[in-house]
Design a protein that fits this description.
By secondary structure, the chain is an alpha/beta fold. The protein is built from 12 helices and 7 strands. It has a 7-stranded parallel β-sheet with strand order 3-2-1-4-5-6-7, with helices on both faces. Strand 1, helix 1 and strand 2 form a beta-alpha-beta unit.
Length: 274
């Protein structure tokens, strides 16, 4: 049977990673709508890959299990790319927490039960997780290891006050969750990591650069040391390294790829002024 790459949320970054790591594999694309899944699968098919497209809500455990069942019919699941998510400009607090925080944690629980030996996964998180003030050691441990079904009931999660806070704590959870799940994935001889991109040229970034917080993001773009936005292919190059044989010693880690925006936020000339 052919090895399988499962891509949840096949936008620009998800597709770029899938192309980079999936030569000789079948790619199963699962998106929030069948239409968007079909569109992504067609692009990958035109690039030479065998594809299957499915509709799936990343925050619905039953639907995730259906995706897993289909993937296992196709072959051993050797790679998971979790790139689904919503941004502060796209959704209310409840949706951000359900998709980005709970959904990712639940997805890693479920795929951790079936990932093939030698397999690897990557979660696309965000630089935003690095802008959240430090949590307590107990809160960190809960975000890393508490059962996914308990996460939304945590006091400090229920206390989230706005969509940006919801997004930041969700992305902090993503970063911590791969640490906790690395222990479980290792039982199957597999690895799991996260990548936290900054401003990457995708439709989601376009929404942020032209949405309610456009001034903030435009200013960030101008001030970051790299002096430009990143591309999905740059994120894919990093993913290929940490998911492939050269990254065999890497698991439970989160990689910041943001053009220096976080460095500027904490230590640049305007640090502490806002």
């Amino acid at each position: 049977m052919t090895d399988v790459t499962v891509v949840i949320g096949a936008g620009g970054i998800g597709q770029a990673i899938a192309r980079r790591i999936s030569s000789g594999r079948h790619i199963l694309v699962a998106n929030h709508s069948q239409e968007s899944a079909d569109t992504a699968a067609k692009l990958l098919e035109n690039a030479g890959f065998e594809t299957t497209a499915m509709q799936a809500d990343v925050s619905d455990r039953a639907m995730v299990r259906t995706v897993i069942g289909k993937a296992q019919e196709l072959g051993p699941v050797k790679a998971l790319v979790q790139a689904a998510g919503v941004s502060p400009s796209q959704a209310p607090i409840e949706a951000i927490l359900k998709v980005d925080l709970y959904g990712t944690a639940m997805l890693l629980e479920e795929f951790g039960k079936v990932i093939a030996p030698g397999g690897s996964g990557v979660v696309i998180s965000s630089q935003s997780g690095y802008r959240l003030p430090a949590l307590t050691a107990e809160q960190d441990a809960l975000l890393a290891t508490a059962p996914a079904e308990d996460l939304l009931a945590l006091d400090f999660v229920k206390a989230v006050k706005d969509t940006l806070h919801a997004y930041q704590i969700s992305k902090r959870c993503n970063s911590l969750r791969v640490r906790g799940e690395a222990i479980n994935w290792a039982k199957r001889g597999a690895r799991i990591n996260a990548i936290s991109p900054g401003i990457i040229v995708t439709p989601l970034a376009h929404d942020e650069l032209h949405g309610d917080r456009a001034d903030f993001y435009q200013a960030m773009l101008k001030k970051m040391p790299a002096g430009r936005a990143g591309t999905p292919d740059e994120v894919a190059a990093l993913a290929a390294l940490i998911m492939g044989p050269e990254g065999g010693f890497i698991t439970g880690s989160d990689f910041l790829i943001d053009g220096g925006a976080t460095a500027n936020f904490y230590y640049g000339p305007d640090a502490g002024k806002s």
